[in-house]
Specification:
31% helix; single chain; 289 residues; disordered N terminus; disordered C terminus; five-stranded mixed beta sheet; alpha/beta; six-stranded mixed beta sheet
Length: 289
Amino acid sequence: MTAAHSAGNVASVKTLILSDLHLGHPSSRLDPAGLEALGRLAARFDRVILNGDALDRWERPDPTPEMQAWRARLERTLVSRGGPAELLTGNHDPAISERHYCYLEEAQALVFHGDYALDCASPWMWHAGVFKQTFRAAWSEAGGGDHFARRAEVFRRVQRAFLSAHPEDYAKEALRPGPYLLRQMLSPRRAVRIAHYLVRMPAWVARRAAGFDRPVTRAVVGHSHRAGAWRVGALEVCNTGSFMPFSQPWGLVVEGASVRREPVAALLDGLGRAVAVPAAGLEGTHPVR
C-alpha cells in the first residue's frame, strides 16, 4: 500500500473505476493500442479499479494461454501511481481474483459488478432456472438472509463451478449488429426478458446494496453494459457501461467524497484517441421507482 492509500491521506486518493473491458473478445474495442492509451490514462490516477469482466474468460483454474497473455498485458499496462489495476470479479471472469466488491469510505460507494443483484447473472439465458436453483440451495445451506459479502462469495463459488461445467455459454463470436438484433427479434421472450432486466436492474442493485453493513449512498456497477445513473430513493446507482458494441464506456472518478462520471473518450483527451468511442449514448439520470 502506498502513502497515497494510507488512512491519513484518503481524501487525496484519486480513483478511476471502469468495467467490462472484455479483453480477448473479438468485438471488444480494446485492442493492444487501445489498452496502451488506457494505460496512459491510468498513470494519472492513484488507484484504478476494474469492476468485473476485465477479461472475457477467466472462470477456470487453468485459463487458456490466450487469456493468460491478455492478463499479463493488462497487469503490465494498466498501472496507476499506486500499482496495477485492482481486479474485481465479474460473470465472465469470476475466478480472476478473490475480491468481489470494494467500498470507498469517504464517497460511501459500494463497487461490485452487478450481476449478483439477482439470483442469476442473465435471466434470459437457457440455464437461468437451473442456476437459480443451484445458487438458492447453496445460499440456504450457507444461512441465507441479506448479508451482502457472504452472498457475493457464495454466488461466485457457485458461478465458477457452473461455468466450468458449461464453457460453451461464453463462446467468443464477433457481435454483428444486424444478425444480433435479428436473433433477438426471432426470440420475443428473450428480448422481453433482456428489456425488463435493463429497466429494473437499478432497483435490484439498490435492493442488494441495502444488505451491505456500512452506509451506502452510491452503488457502482457494470454488467448490463447500460451506462447511466439512476436515483433509487436515497441511493444513486451508477453503471459505467462497457467497451463492447451497443454500449459506451464511462469512467467514475472518485476523489475523497467527490464523485463524477465522464465518458472514457473525454478522459482520454490529450492522450490520443486509440479508443475511438463517441461520447453520446449515456441514458442520463433518471428516477427509478
